[in-house]
Amino acid sequence: MNSRARRNHIAHAVFPIALAVALALTAGIARAANVVIVNIDGANEGFNDPTAAPPVGNNAGLTVGQQRLNIFNHAGQIWGGLLPSAVTIRVEAAFDPLACTATTAILGQAGAPFGYANFGGAPITNTVYPAALANKLHGSDLDPASNDIEAQFNSRLNGNVTCLNGVGWYYGFDGNEGVNIDLLPVVLHEIGHGLGFATSTSLTTGEFALVGVPDIFARKILDKTQNKHWDQLTAAQRLASAINTNNVVWDGQNTTLASPLVLGPRTVVAVNSPAVIAGTFSANSASFGAHLSATGLTGPIVLVDDGTAPNSDACTPIVNAAQISGKIAFIDRSNACTFASRAARAQAVGAIGVIIANNGAGALVPGGSDPTITIPVVGISLADGNIVRAQLGAGVNATLELELTQNAGADAQGRVMLFTPNQAQPGSSISHWDVAALPNLLMEPAINSDLQAGSVDLTEFVFRDIGWFDGATDAGNAPLATRIVSNAPNPFNPATKIRFDLAVTGPAHLAVYDLSGRLVKRILDGSLTAGAHALPWDGTDGRGRGVAAGVYLARLEADGQSFAHRMVLVK
Questions:
Q1: For 262-314, how does the pLDDT look when each residue is reduced to its tens digit (9 = 90+)?
Q2: Which domains does the chain have, with CATH numbers?
Q3: Bridge partners for 501 per DSSP
């Protein structure tokens, strides 16, 4: 008998890497899922808004409503092209006026309205699976009368100054949103929640939606302090874990193996002097400004003064310009202006870099967008900011740099950290990646402007861990098998890495084909040792010419076997 549980919707304030299962070529490619958008908007609103709009960013719609629907269909095609399922996935969606002020907004909210446990085909008993995944595993729709995902998006982002100071939605497919908010990654993000990137655990009680029955996502949440997964914890322990900052990780094997392909080195502030505070402080790069390098940016740190209390928040023009010029500006966060505007004022007076210290508990990732800012900007915690600020009078010299020995947003074992601020944020805590991830990931609690258009980065590795791919659940310490594991990023533009495992040392051949079977490019013809490997494909053919957007097959021949894997090139 099936058990069905109501799941929490996901909502968050304003601010992938896909893989197909490795198959023997004779078995064919796993059937792509059909994702259908169910428009529940009324006449002349939302998807039916008749307001004229010129085509933008490869979106050919001629009205606001049609452009919105085109974005949703495009997002559905991306997810459908990556997930193997014979059961149609129905996404009920609407645009409605959601909460919005001049500085914050709910962009969207979505989730699976129901979860199922102990259905025919469930890989793990007494475990709740979201509707779309449960249907896929069951082989047919467990509730044909209900939609699988419910989603709602904010119609107030329309240029009205009362909402985010006039910022609106960007309806292109190409990621060139400028000062606006790119709708495509928001839709991919919210559908991702509905497909399974979320736990039904209450952050008020610590209980699962179906009391005593964990969801499949919770089974992969590991609290490193308690050294237990969430399904092994009591409700009280889960509540404590939800605020155990930097100590809660995703413990899925596929995601852990993929994280080095996706995440870059973490950002740090290395204090060189004075000796009393010399050492490395964790930091997060802003979503705007110059990228740091391994060699970093070194200089004295000077506190800004804007002449208006609180003097160090840089929300008005900086008055100690002579002291800031050629130095790293130290700015204290306040709620009076945007991160980008603070950095712009520091840059205007000659700062070579910016450190912004948080004004509350937890890590700080300076968000926003400003293409005119060309200096690096990082955020640090309130605690670390207090340590540095206390020594500024005596003189502090530091280097803003990338630490190559550890990836940003992952622990030393490569397990990706989940978002666990020390005050629980319902709708955001646990069901997102930590904001320390770099590059920024689709499933962070904030949509960042540097996300690659159409990419779902690490998200589908999570879906592999929770059972979206046949035989693809965490294999634990199973012997290494020859197979194509993934490509990352996927979808991609312009380049990706194809990751594969070899069970034995010997000849290996890797090539890219189009869907008609025509050879596009040979990547490898040689001998490799047993183990994990990753080789790049730059989106070109054998003559070095860029290929068209579309679906391509990576084919691996090794150990007497052949495997194929779908890759999606977007342009």
A1: 888 888 999 999 999 999 998 988 878 998 877 899 999 999 999 999 999 99
A2: 3-259+412-464 (no CATH), 265-407 (3.50.30.30), 479-569 (2.60.40.4070)
A3: 483, 532
